[in-house]
Design a protein that fits this description.
Blueprint: H1 17-36, H2 41-45, E1 62-68, H3 72-84, H4 92-98, E2 114-121, E3 125-131, E4 134-140, H5 151-163, E5 170-172, H6 178-184, E6 189-190, E7 196-197, E8 205-212, H7 235-239, H8 258-262, H9 285-288, H10 294-297, E9 301-302, H11 308-316, H12 321-330, H13 335-338, H14 343-354
Parallel strand pairs: 3-9
Antiparallel strand pairs: 1-2, 2-8, 3-4, 5-8, 6-7
The structure holds iron/sulfur cluster (SF4) (2 copies).
């Protein structure tokens, strides 16, 4: 459950060599994956822009849909209904993420006509931490590391491949409910775990929304839809360590979700046992166990190992400039690993995983 798109707010300027390495790793895995499915890599890459029938730059695997801003009222009503029915958790952290979100045309962009919702394929990563002669292989979920795709890359892609005409304004829309937008636009469907699944990506993806003053002829609007596979599957009910996914309520009890607690500073609540943690940040349980994700899990990448000396320093909570720099490179700008003020989050999360 990724509630916070952490990497986006923290500057994309950092990565240079590691970003291109990420792309090379990705393309290598893409070739391997396609060979398993007897596909050419282009077949998978051609998923991008399928609705409009356009291609994408070679190294961004994406899909998109467009919606007229005339639908903002209905989108806001979807959220307001959930609020009125008390379906949205009152958890303070969760509320801090969503309370200032609204589907409304921003004052500084009154001519906006459409919203483009875009999903880029984002792999999960593994990383080995060495300690006491042992190797601890730990997951780093998609979205917590910098995959090297910048907002400017996406704006360029939209102008070139989606709008296909110069001169239009494109602005990132930050304060909108991305999963709802993706489902209502037909880009994705909800799983029982309330994550958004996109064809050809599972839920290994990053969602973005961009406003533009371009008016699209096509206007997609879909009923809220659940993933077909979920109809006869209950796996995530049993896998979720904190039981926040239940048969009775489609909207999960976010207040119990591991992600809400290990993304922010502070001590973990008593109900969150060390054994429930499974990733450097966030939680991968309901994604790793989901059959819809099976083939995309095989495309997971691997980051450079964290040495014994580095692991010891992390566990002691004693970062120095050299460590922050080295971890920033190895973990691709995973922010608690390379920003001193967030380092206690890293120390706390790693301790429960390898103690
Ligand atoms: S594990 Fe099964 S029920 Fe849960 S989201 Fe995946 S397909 Fe749906
Ligand atoms: S398995 Fe449960 S705790 Fe983990 S992300 Fe899914 S819903 Fe949240």
């Amino acid at each position: 459950m990724k509630l916070l798109n952490t990497k986006r707010g923290r500057g994309m300027e950092y990565l240079t060599d590691s970003a291109s390495q990420s792309r090379r790793d990705f393309m290598k895995n893409l070739v391997f994956f396609c060979s398993l499915l007897h596909l050419k890599p282009e077949d998978l890459l051609a998923l991008s822009g399928t609705r409009e029938g356009y291609g994408s730059p070679p190294d961004i695997v994406y899909q998109h849909r467009t919606l007229s801003l005339g639908h903002f009222k209905e989108l806001q009503e979807d959220i307001d209904i959930l609020k009125r029915k008390g379906k949205l958790s009152r958890n303070k952290t969760f509320r801090s993420y969503i309370d200032d979100m609204r589907f409304e045309i921003p004052e500084n962009f009154p001519d906006a006509q459409s919203i483009i919702v875009l999903a880029t394929f984002t792999r999960m990563m593994y990383v080995n931490f060495h300690l006491g002669g042992k190797k601890y292989d730990i997951m780093l979920p998609p979205q917590y590391y910098d995959d090297g795709i910048s907002i400017d890359d996406l704006k360029g892609l939209i102008l070139k491949d989606i709008i296909q005409e110069p001169g239009y304004r494109i602005e990132k829309a930050d304060k909108v409910h991305l999963k709802l937008l993706a489902v209502r636009s037909g880009l994705g469907t909800y799983g029982r775990n309330n994550l958004c699944f996109v064809d050809g990506m599972g839920n290994f993806l990053t969602l973005y929304a961009f406003l533009t003053d371009f008016k699209f002829e096509e206007n997609h609007w879909h009923e809220l839809k659940m993933l077909d596979l979920c109809k006869n599957c209950r796996i995530c009910y049993g896998i979720c360590p904190t039981n926040c996914i239940t048969e009775e309520h489609f909207v999960i009890d976010v207040g119990k979700c591991v992600t809400l607690y290990n993304e922010v500073e502070g001590t973990f609540p008593r109900f969150l046992l060390p054994s429930m943690h499974n990733a450097l940040m966030g939680c991968m349980k309901c994604q790793v166990g989901c059959p819809e994700n099976e083939k995309f899990l095989r495309m997971a990448g691997r980051l450079e190992d964290v040495t014994e000396e580095e692991t010891r320093k992390i566990l002691k909570g004693e970062p120095d400039e050299h460590l922050l720099d080295s971890l920033g490179q190895k973990l691709r700008k995973f922010y608690p690993a390379c920003e001193e003020k967030y380092f206690p989050i890293f120390t706390r999360n790693l301790r429960v995983l390898i103690s």
